[in-house]
Amino acid sequence: MNLEILTPEKSIYKGEASLVQLPGIDGLFEILNNHAPLISVLSSGKIKVKVDDDFKYFEINGGVVEVMNNKTLVLAE
């Protein structure tokens, strides 16, 4: 899936990912390829992104995620 993580200052990640784990307000949840459309509020925590066989981590202070048509957009604080 295509993933983009944006903050008010800059884009911190843009590229392909096979898994994204996000800190939702009710706990962690994961998004995989071809996930159903979704909009959710995020809390403070780490975003875990699987790229090939490697993991990348990004610390956020909250935000919003939108998933649609195999594209995930995270607007993070």
Give a brief outline of the structure.
The chain has 77 residues and is mainly β. The protein has strands spanning 2-6, 11-16, 19-24, 27-32, 38-51, 54-68, 71-76. The protein has no helices and seven strands.
What does this structure look like?
This protein is mainly beta. Helix content is 0%, strand content 75%. The protein has one domain (2-76): F0F1 ATP synthase delta/epsilon subunit, N-terminal (ATP Synthase, domain 1, Sandwich). Strands 2-1-7-6-5-3-4 form a 7-stranded mixed β-sheet, with no helix packed on it. A hairpin with a 2-residue loop joins strand 5 (38-51) and strand 6 (54-68).
Outline the fold blueprint.
Elements: E1 2-6, E2 11-16, E3 19-24, E4 27-32, E5 38-51, E6 54-68, E7 71-76
Parallel strand pairs: 1-7
Antiparallel strand pairs: 1-2, 3-4, 3-5, 5-6, 6-7
**Rg result:** 11 Å
Report helical residue fraction: under 10%
CATH hierarchy, class: Mainly Beta
Give me the CATH superfamily: F0F1 ATP synthase delta/epsilon subunit, N-terminal
Main beta-sheet annotation: 7 strands, mixed
| Sheet with most strands: strand arrangement | 2-1-7-6-5-3-4
| Beta fraction | over 45%
